[in-house]
Design brief:
This protein is an alpha+beta fold. Helix content is about 30%, strand content about 30%. The termini are far apart. It binds guanosine-5'-triphosphate and magnesium ion. Guanosine-5'-triphosphate binds next to helix 1.
């Protein structure tokens, strides 16, 4: 594998709404660049970037796929990302190693929900963007309408640098509006255009398009503006560098047209990227996350600096083991180097330094600053870690991922599955940082959390196929709690004095509510030794144990204060156990008086939907006992914020998908506990009684 200098590398994140044809377009570019001998296809499962078993089965991208090809002497590293809302955070992760972003839209739908999302990501990372309106061979694909929609959504700094020739099935080629040349293609051909005269029917539009570019380039550059005023145009020798500068500074966003499946225009996209997109060395310095209090430092992407690199993806291949994909931020990395993982303070050996082409590792002797590489069998390195020269530790920022939106209880099918489950899940969690696996202390269930139903289904399927572990998913139990609304004064007396050594404990307590989140307070208000000091902790212990078992429905009692104010004891028969039992008895009696009530977790929910679904979603939230907190409008999307009891949100992911044809997304997190209304409380109590029906409490 050839070694490339920093200036000859282009790192491109390919992002967009689901199904707009990103993977297909990448496949076409790779074919055009001679990486594959023919066009590979998503529906055949033959593409380089959708290689993972689950991606092939579902015919969609699920995580970042990496590929590269050489074009015009440059190495173009391509990061193909998923567009489906539950996996779109991978598009964000791909922006860490990228210097430019290819935003793909569908020629029929143009701007969609996830187009906005990925655009916002690129904005956050301040990356240059090239827009490709893809699938131009489809019925109803429309160049003008797409341009308008894009400019409406993202502003007037988006400008076509290409126009299609022909329409829909009659798509024939493209006009390069920068150099004013036209190219014709064979639909389904090798992707290499033949130069032809600009057809008469697009000549006027092409001329206007060229002028629009000239004006926009001049706008941000005083010298060019002057030249434009003087001459009425800007010659190529000034226009091209001016255009490049505007693109690199993300002041201007070029729009191109293509058909990935028909392989039309892909050579021009490659031409454009290699000519106008920045090399890593042109990226502004990267700011680190200070390791000690202080200001972030700047790091230049350059061979001359000491070695630093950051892992941006981890693959756990059942055969090869762990493969780490990383970007060299500075310095030159050589094969077999020993590199310090700063995040985990461990040295790692980079044996068999490689670059990844889909699932294949191709050996390389060294990688220069800005390039992307892969290495197998690192010991401790995980996604997000920063590594490098031992003498100069740094930490690069990691992507902030959304909180999981959905949680299921997960149970192994058999005993054999139980043994394998944790291991398999942990391997999958190394690959996918959005998976969480934990045990709920209260309900004792193992829980798995992710971005949505399909996300969890993918995990379950990978567990089965890769790790031969079968599980059952269930809606998680709601971790209800109990509390009191009133005060109580109760007496607990435990006395067994028949024959032999007796037992005697006796206490009087008062009980009162605490505010939400107050937990439990125990106040020792005993005067004059009516209970000896050494037995007082036993009373408290009895109360705590009883409270953990609940009173109404077996859920832990919280937010209350107990004041122990009186009691009595027996010189011989009193012991710790007796006072513990007395505490428990007092607690139970107090609960009866203190208006026990159920509490439920309430989630803070944020739902993003296209405007037309807003009414239906609000109505639905109402029926889920939701309280709307606010509504926002963001470019054709409504963002609804609400507080909704967790019990009503257990299957929300699937419900939202059904209600919005998959166009809605939501996030939620636990916010606070609140009283369960009487009607629901009765049901929860009845259900819990039925579940515990046969259980008889055993005195200890
Ligand atoms: N007609 C036509 N169909 C296309 C074109 N590009 C892709 N498709 C089809 O569109 C569907 C989706 O293509 P993908 O390449 O998987 O789309 P994607 O954007 O990678 O989808 P995700 O990874 O799920 O976000 C496939 O059935 C493709 O065959 C195109 O240029 N023209
Ligand atoms: Mg894809």
């Amino acid at each position: 594998m050839k070694v490339y200098q920093s200036a000859d590398v282009r790192n491109l994140a390919v992002v967009g709404h689901s199904h707009c044809g990103k993977t297909t377009l990448v496949a076409a570019m790779l074919y055009t660049a001679g990486v594959t001998p023919k066009q590979t296809r998503v529906d055949e499962g033959s593409t380089i970037t959708d290689w993972e078993e689950e991606e092939v089965a579902r015919q969609m991208s699920l995580s970042i796929g990496v590929a590269y090809g050489e074009w015009a002497g440059k190495k173009v590293n391509i990061l193909d990302t998923p567009g489906f809302n539950m996996f779109v955070h991978e598009a964000k992760a791909a922006m860490i190693p990228a210097e430019s972003v290819l935003v793909v839209v569908d020629g029929v739908h143009a701007v969609e929900v996830m187009t906005e999302r990925v655009w916002a990501y690129a904005e956050e990372f301040e990356l240059p963007r090239v827009i490709v309106v893809n699938r131009m061979d489809r019925d109803r694909a429309d160049a003008q309408r797409s341009i308008e929609a894009l400019r409406n959504a993202f502003g007037r700094h988006l400008v076509p640098v290409m126009l299609p020739i022909g329409q829909e099935k009659g798509l024939k080629g493209v006009v390069d509006l920068v150099r004013m040349k036209a190219y014709q293609y064979d639909l389904g051909g090798n992707g290499k255009g033949r130069e032809v005269p600009i057809p008469a029917d697009v000549a006027d539009a092409a001329k206007a398009g060229h002028e629009a570019i000239v004006e926009l380039v001049a706008e941000g550059n005083d010298e060019l503006m002057q030249e434009f005023f003087d001459k009425g145009t800007i010659p190529d020798e000034h226009l091209l560098p001016g255009l490049r500068e505007a693109i690199v500074a993300h002041r201007l966003f070029p729009i191109m047209f293509a058909s990935g499946l028909g392989n039309v225009g892909t050579d021009k996209i490659l031409d454009f990227i290699t000519e106008f997109a920045p090399a890593p060395v042109e990226r502004p310095p990267v700011h680190d996350t200070p390791l000690a209090p202080g200001e972030p430092e700047e790091h230049h992407i350059s061979d001359a600096e000491s070695l630093t690199l950051q892992a941006f993806k981890t693959v756990n291949d059942p055969f090869t083991g762990r493969i780490t994909l990383f970007k060299v931020f500075s310095g030159v990395l050589k094969t077999d180097a020993s590199v310090q993982n700063y995040t985990r303070s461990t040295a790692e050996k980079f044996s068999h330094l490689s670059v990844m082409q889909g699932k294949s590792l191709n050996a390389v002797t060294e990688l220069h600053a800005g390039d992307i590489g892969a290495v197998a069998k690192l010991k401790v390195t995980l996604t997000g870690d920063t590594l490098g020269d031992k003498a100069h530790p740094v930490a690069y920022p990691v992507v902030k991922l959304p909180e999981p939106a959905i949680t299921f209880a997960i149970e192994p099918k058999t005993r054999a599955d139980e043994d394998k489950l944790a291991n398999g899940l942990h391997k999958l969690m190394e690959e996918d940082m959005m998976v969480r696996f934990f045990r709920d202390e209260q309900t004792k269930e193992f829980l798995i959390a992710g971005t949505g139903q399909q996300h969890i289904e993918v995990i379950v399927s990978k567990l089965k196929k890769r790790y031969h572990t079968e599980v059952v998913l269930k809606a998680p139990k709601v971790p209800y709690r109990e509390t009191i609304r009133g005060k109580a004064d109760a007496h607990g007396r435990h006395k067994k004095q028949t024959g032999g050594h007796g037992q005697f404990g006796d206490c009087k307590i008062k009980m009162e509510p605490l505010p939400r989140g107050g937990g439990f307070e125990f106040v020792n208000d005993i005067f004059g030794g009516s209970i000896p000091r050494n037995f007082i902790p036993a009373v408290e212990k009895g109360i705590v144990e009883a409270a953990a078992r609940g009173h109404l429905a077996g859920f832990p009692v919280v937010d209350y204060r107990v004041i122990l104010y009186d009691g009595s004891y027996h010189d011989v028969d009193s012991n710790e156990l007796s006072f513990k039992v007395a505490g428990r008895l007092a607690f139970r009696k107090a609960m009866e008086q203190a208006k026990p009530s159920l509490l439920e977790p309430v989630m803070k929910v944020e739902i993003t939907i296209p405007d037309e679904f807003a009414g239906a979603i609000m109505g639905d939230l109402n029926s889920r006992r939701g309280r709307i907190q606010g509504m926002d409008n963001k470019a054709g999307n409504t963002v609804v914020k609400a507080e909704v009891p967790m019990a009503e949100m257990l299957t929300y992911g699937a419900d939202l998908t059904a209600m919005t044809q998959g166009r809605g997304s939501f996030q939620m997190e636990m916010d606070h506990y609140d009283f369960v209304p009487a009607l629901q409380a009765e049901k929860v109590i009845a259900h819990s009684k039925a579940e515990r029906g046969e259980l008889v409490e055993v005195e200890d």
